[in-house]
Amino acid sequence: MAIDRFLEPKASSWMANEGENTDIAMSTRIRLARNLNEFKFPYAFTEDEALKVDKAISSVLLDKGKDLNQEFTHIDIHEVSSLHRELLVEKHLISPHLAAGVHSGSVLLSKNEELSIMINEEDHLRIQSLQSGFHLQEAYQIANQLDSLLEENLQYAFHEKFGYLTSCPTNTGTGMRASVMLHLPALTMSQQITRIIPAISRLGMVVRGIYGEGSEALGNVYQISNQLTLGKSEYEILQDLQNMTEQIIEQERRARQAILSNSPLKLEDRIYRSLGILTYSRLLTTEEAAKCLSDVRLGIDLELIENIDMSILNELMVFMQPAFLQHYSEKPLSPNERDIARAKLFRERLKEEYKINGDKEGEDSV
Amino acid sequence: MICNQCGERPASVLVKQKRNGQLTERHLCHVCAAENHNLNLAFEQDPLAIHQLLSNWFPVQSPSVNPVQKEVSVCPSCGFTFNNFLKLGKFGCATCYETFESNLEEIFKRLHNGNKEHSGKIPASYGSTLKIKKEIEELRKQLKVSIEEEEFEEAARLRDQVRELTKELEGSANHGD
């Protein structure tokens, strides 16, 4: 089946670890929301209209994708099992809203998984462009090219005053949500993050933990994104987000250096304990895995840990989630069984990693 | 109490869920509660429950006493009323924007830090004059930034672009006369 390639335990290119600032900025995403003028929006349209919208958008993409050197795979959401939908959600290729399958909807995925076009999510069209690291401009260029190609062939709902018309008034205007995922362990440990979050929200941007709305972020991973879509151009929004993200990265670097010089032994102990848990534990919950991954990631950034490649951690972050664990085990797992499977996944992946890169400490202790 | 889901760890969270009008209560341990709403909230989260905000700003009233418009405004295309929009926090179609336009300025100003008009990309198919005007505005902003950052080569390039577009705009206006 066409979907199979996207379910393999291979990392998507946005999980790679290349480019500037990848130690702190893990990935970048641009999302554009668009609707077609002649159809009612998804909250009001009929099933018949949903099918027509799907067909209109899909045929343009499958037909004209070549112009952008892209080949898209069309996946009808209703033809996919719920586990497979979950897998696509865990890989960030579709949203939970699309996975719920309220209407006829689809996703078109590019080969490298950098572009995902969702049809009949909250809007007729959601263009999503994913890049590893901190690449707002590149991610926008890719999304924008695709958007320009589509608008040549489809009539978008657009208003002279309000811009691109979307289902939700929080997206009206540019329809653009730009976000960067940031790993901020030092700002979290020093609790500076609790002061940064409210300050940023006054500037039309928002920082959230990757998990839940509160300040407690799972694995110290936060997402910063623009909240405004009206009144500022795409260029200004990206510029503001770029500047703010650079400032946060700078703050995080300073906080890391402060912790490293104030309590080096305590930090090193914490990092190696976490590496020990990931390498040897037999039961591993999501929270513990996320916390330890964060510590080990920090250890690699600070060059305390040298024999583990960062991209492995990015992959594990995705593959340790419930649907992926069940996909590998080829059966449904209870939460407790998942903790077992998760621990096994980490042990195996990290041991492979030591074999490839040579585990000097391991050899010493033999 | 032991967790209803794994049956192993002690329950620490009470999860109440309303589905199809039926309220279910489950006692979960912190592990199962976390698994239930997993990592994936990451990318597509509603930053704020929009319908809640809207109904705070515009208390939903019975249609007959709608203070803004004496009669109920119903979107002719999708049938949404303004109250539908407030309750759901979503528009039903493109025509809703025109139907409810008189109330939208207030909403957009609150949601978008005082802004009420779009100033970004315009679809190519949408009137070339408007497109050029907005493009010039946009280039001028970029020009300002590049001058501030002393990127003079870039500034010169942008300035030429603005000139060219202005000419084009005047050309099409004269042509229209």
Automatic annotation (TrEMBL), chain A:
<comment type="similarity">
    <text>Belongs to the ATP:guanido phosphotransferase family.</text>
</comment>
<keyword id="KW-0808">Transferase</keyword>
<feature type="domain" description="Phosphagen kinase C-terminal">
    <location>
        <begin position="24"/>
        <end position="255"/>
    </location>
</feature>
<dbReference type="Pfam" id="PF00217">
    <property type="entry name" value="ATP-gua_Ptrans"/>
</dbReference>
<dbReference type="GO" id="GO:0046314">
    <property type="term" value="P:phosphocreatine biosynthetic process"/>
</dbReference>
<dbReference type="GO" id="GO:0005524">
    <property type="term" value="F:ATP binding"/>
</dbReference>
<feature type="binding site">
    <location>
        <begin position="177"/>
        <end position="181"/>
    </location>
    <ligand>
        <name>ATP</name>
    </ligand>
</feature>
<feature type="binding site">
    <location>
        <begin position="208"/>
        <end position="213"/>
    </location>
    <ligand>
        <name>ATP</name>
    </ligand>
</feature>
<keyword id="KW-0418">Kinase</keyword>
<protein>
    <recommendedName>
        <fullName>Protein-arginine kinase</fullName>
        <ecNumber>2.7.14.1</ecNumber>
    </recommendedName>
</protein>
<dbReference type="GO" id="GO:0004111">
    <property type="term" value="F:creatine kinase activity"/>
</dbReference>
<keyword id="KW-0021">Allosteric enzyme</keyword>
<feature type="short sequence motif" description="RDXXRA motif of the pArg binding pocket involved in allosteric regulation">
    <location>
        <begin position="338"/>
        <end position="343"/>
    </location>
</feature>
<comment type="function">
    <text>Catalyzes the specific phosphorylation of arginine residues in proteins.</text>
</comment>
<dbReference type="InterPro" id="IPR022414">
    <property type="entry name" value="ATP-guanido_PTrfase_cat"/>
</dbReference>
<dbReference type="GO" id="GO:1990424">
    <property type="term" value="F:protein arginine kinase activity"/>
</dbReference>
<keyword id="KW-0547">Nucleotide-binding</keyword>
<feature type="binding site">
    <location>
        <position position="126"/>
    </location>
    <ligand>
        <name>ATP</name>
    </ligand>
</feature>
<dbReference type="InterPro" id="IPR000749">
    <property type="entry name" value="ATP-guanido_PTrfase"/>
</dbReference>
<feature type="binding site">
    <location>
        <begin position="27"/>
        <end position="31"/>
    </location>
    <ligand>
        <name>ATP</name>
    </ligand>
</feature>
<dbReference type="InterPro" id="IPR014746">
    <property type="entry name" value="Gln_synth/guanido_kin_cat_dom"/>
</dbReference>
<dbReference type="InterPro" id="IPR023660">
    <property type="entry name" value="Arg_Kinase"/>
</dbReference>
UniProtKB/TrEMBL annotation, chain B:
<dbReference type="InterPro" id="IPR025542">
    <property type="entry name" value="YacH"/>
</dbReference>
<dbReference type="GO" id="GO:0046870">
    <property type="term" value="F:cadmium ion binding"/>
</dbReference>
<dbReference type="InterPro" id="IPR001943">
    <property type="entry name" value="UVR_dom"/>
</dbReference>
<protein>
    <submittedName>
        <fullName>Nucleotide excision repair protein</fullName>
    </submittedName>
</protein>
<dbReference type="GO" id="GO:1990170">
    <property type="term" value="P:stress response to cadmium ion"/>
</dbReference>
<dbReference type="Pfam" id="PF02151">
    <property type="entry name" value="UVR"/>
</dbReference>
<keyword id="KW-0175">Coiled coil</keyword>
<dbReference type="GO" id="GO:0008270">
    <property type="term" value="F:zinc ion binding"/>
</dbReference>
<dbReference type="InterPro" id="IPR036876">
    <property type="entry name" value="UVR_dom_sf"/>
</dbReference>
<dbReference type="GO" id="GO:1990169">
    <property type="term" value="P:stress response to copper ion"/>
</dbReference>
<dbReference type="GO" id="GO:0050897">
    <property type="term" value="F:cobalt ion binding"/>
</dbReference>
<feature type="domain" description="UVR">
    <location>
        <begin position="133"/>
        <end position="168"/>
    </location>
</feature>
<feature type="coiled-coil region">
    <location>
        <begin position="129"/>
        <end position="175"/>
    </location>
</feature>
<dbReference type="GO" id="GO:0005507">
    <property type="term" value="F:copper ion binding"/>
</dbReference>
